[in-house]
Amino acid sequence: MNGTSDTPLDLGDLERADALVLFGISGDLARKMLLPALYRLTESGKLTVPVIGVAATDWDDDALRRHAREAVTDAGTDIDEAVFSRLAAKLSLVAGDFTDDATFARLRDAVAHLGFLTHYLAIPPSLFTTVAAALARAGLNRDARLVVEKPFGHDPASARELQKALSASFDERHLLRVDHFLGSEAVEGLMVARFANTLLAPIWHRSYVDNVQISLTEDFDVADRGSFYDTVGCVRDVVQNHLLQVLAYLAMDPPSVTNARAQALEKWRVLHATRTIDPADTVRGQYEGYRDVAGVAPDSTTETYFATRLYVDNWRWSGVPFHLRSGKALAVSATEVVVELRKPPLELFGDVETETPPNLIRFRIDGDTGIRADLTLRKPDRGTAPVPVPIGVDFARVLGRQELPYENILEGAVEGDPAYFAFYPTVLECWRVVEPVLDPGGTPLPYARGSWGPEAADRLPGLRAWHQPGRRLFGDDG
């Protein structure tokens, strides 16, 4: 199948790379995420290939290594000098402009002896096609694959155009698309929890599930990213990719075998069955003060908050509402899934004033990751109503340190594991789902910083109440 098809992909085994070429190694993403992840991979013995950085800078190799040390330290890591020495020995730099073919000639000389290459583009999306074409002109698209960061397009049409342009230089088997949520251990753990436990698998169905809530809330604002964020907004930034990928893991049917192709097909099927968003079922918000941020238009209508109701029209989920929301400058930072189970058919233990609360299953998939079930139990005080009691697992405490998403992504990029990357047909389905609300016009509703967003979101069609996440999954406010 060719790279521009809209049908599910025929994925085969991918080659292991002999070197990682990291475009944009001097940039913000590399500093905050990629270089700390490379350190962790070195620490665990998983990074065994050289890393050649490419950047428009006047640095030399030593300057890059100093920058890498600062990045790892800024990430809160106590550096082990022996580990960092191993990482530093793998780092080198090719400096030059991405629009200058001479840069790619120098890169070709630097990697001539290295074998199969993974080219990782941690650069603005506007440069994806420029760099891909330059790699092809230099012959660096042979024995190589290309990895591109999100966003993959800004709507369905541009995603198709980007696919067509990149496919001129790299075929589909050698093109990987990053969505860092797919590298999250906790997100992948959704599938394991669902399909490896007969305690959960039989009830993951419309007969037992009343509704599902998926929240990605942040207590910080756009900070110094105003000019970027104002052209993107909440829907493009996190709903089209992160939240819909979580929905796919949460709602997909079990794959027939444990490989990336089977998983990709099931994700595609469930997204294909997901209705496009109805604008009438949405609430858009903008936190107070957003328009005063440098780089934001004084009359900006960009949403910093978005909430909606979705339906998956298949046998498993027909009629079950999925409520999604995300926003900045909210009460807490948390990424959490809440599955609310149907209540028993008779109210035996509540009363007119106090209903028995429903059972909830919570998955925290960022920060203090874990799984928690809120069960209804009787208090020992006679005459008091039953209360919800949390039971569950704190992943870090029980299972040890969770690998950072970019550790898995970079390892997958080198090893040729497509499981951590978004596949083109699912990307198109995600764009289809959100297309009606990409550029809706109108002014978003204002909301106070530190709140839960616009009050109108509490009256989203079909919503009884949001199950608010606490600052921690287990604790007094959880």
From TrEMBL:
Keywords assigned by UniProt, alphabetized: Carbohydrate metabolism, Glucose metabolism, NADP, Oxidoreductase
Residues binding substrate, per UniProt: H180, E218, D237, K328
Domain Glucose-6-phosphate dehydrogenase NAD-binding: 21-188
Domain Glucose-6-phosphate dehydrogenase C-terminal, residue spans: 191-460
InterPro entries: G6P_DH, G6P_DH_C, G6P_DH_NAD-bd, NAD(P)-bd_dom_sf
Matching Pfam families: G6PD_C, G6PD_N
Catalyzed chemical reaction(s): D-glucose 6-phosphate + NADP(+) = 6-phospho-D-glucono-1,5-lactone + NADPH + H(+)
Binding residues annotated for NADP(+), in chain numbering: A56, D97, F98, K150
E.C. designation(s): 1.1.1.49
Pathway: Carbohydrate degradation; pentose phosphate pathway; D-ribulose 5-phosphate from D-glucose 6-phosphate (oxidative stage): step 1/3
Active site (UniProt): H242
Function statement: Catalyzes the oxidation of glucose 6-phosphate to 6-phosphogluconolactone.
PANTHER family associated with the record: GLUCOSE-6-PHOSPHATE 1-DEHYDROGENASE, GLUCOSE-6-PHOSPHATE 1-DEHYDROGENASE G6PD
Alphabetized NCBIfam families for the sequence: zwf
Family: Belongs to the glucose-6-phosphate dehydrogenase family.
HAMAP family: G6PD
Protein name per its UniProtKB record: Glucose-6-phosphate 1-dehydrogenase
Origin species: Streptomyces albiaxialis
